[in-house]
Design goal:
This protein is 77% helix and 0% strand. With 260 residues, the chain is mostly helical. Helix 6 runs antiparallel to helix 7.
């Protein structure tokens, strides 16, 4: 469970609630079901025009990934690659075939199988990069749909405000209702802003960060596989892969993989 996402949602709820109360209003005063229907329902319905039925219906499952943490275990990956490089230099590339099924990463396993089969390095890179690019393309397609929803939220909020203003102007003879009707009309603008800037766009950004991390690990795997095929010294391979880590993590891992 990604606690940061929970903190963001709960913190946003508290901040908005306190802002309403301290400004002299009430939480109940910003709750309006018709405004929810126009803003949330309308903007979500627009996604069925932009995206496929599968994407529009599966959107919430994808957004649910923002509540999960993913450990790509770069530390173990580097140590494993160094061990494989040592084995390949000592026993030859074909020796790597034994134990391939024990690897957790299908991406790394497929890459190593290619070099065990004697595939040319350029072809190995092309195949692995093609898979990586296609994985990222699928991720970005989902993220694009989420960003589209964030973009439509304020527009439908404004649409709801215009609808409310039209209703208010049609009843100008009732002076006492002008204030309350104006407040209700503006609520949809509030909902549109909340939908885009608090709930939807941050989810897209969180998923983009997860994607970037996964792509970095896949790039590490490609670099490691090609380095093993080239017969690089395990220390050189380790230095290549350590460059993908942040300074703090790198310092910890260096002590394990760069032992003399």
């Amino acid at each position: 469970m990604d606690i940061a996402t929970i903190i963001g949602i709960v913190g946003g709820t508290v901040a908005i609630g306190l802002g309403v109360v301290t400004s002299g209003g009430s939480v109940g005063g910003i709750i309006d079901i018709p405004s929810v229907l126009v803003t949330v329902g309308g903007s979500y319905s627009a996604l069925f025009i932009v995206a496929s039925l599968k994407q529009a219906l599966g959107l919430f499952g994808v957004m649910g990934r923002a509540f999960k943490t993913f450990d790509y275990n770069e530390r173990d990956l580097i140590q494993k690659m160094v061990t494989l490089a040592e084995k390949a230099r000592r026993e030859g590339i074909l020796a790597l075939e034994e134990g391939l099924e024990d690897l957790d990463s299908p991406f790394l396993k497929n890459g190593l199988r290619l070099i065990v089969d004697g595939t040319d390095g350029a072809v190995v890179r092309s195949i692995m990069e093609s898979e990586m690019n296609n994985v990222e393309a699928r991720h970005m397609a989902w993220i694009g749909v989420i960003n589209a929803w964030a973009g439509y939220g304020p527009g439908f909020g404004m649409l709801g405000t215009v609808i409310g203003l039209i209703g208010m102007l049609n009843n100008l003879e009732d002076k006492s209702s002008l204030g309350p009707n104006m407040a209700v009309a503006l609520i949809t603008t509030l909902y549109g802003s909340m939908l885009a800037n608090w709930l939807v766009a941050p989810f897209a950004n969180k998923l983009s960060s997860q994607n970037a991390k996964e792509m970095s690990v896949m790039e590490m795997s490609i670099e490691g596989v090609l380095s093993i095929q080239a017969g690089d010294n395990p220390r050189i391979l380790a230095l290549k892969l350590l460059s993908y880590l942040d300074p703090k993590t790198r310092k910890v891992v260096e002590g394990d993989v760069l032992k003399d």
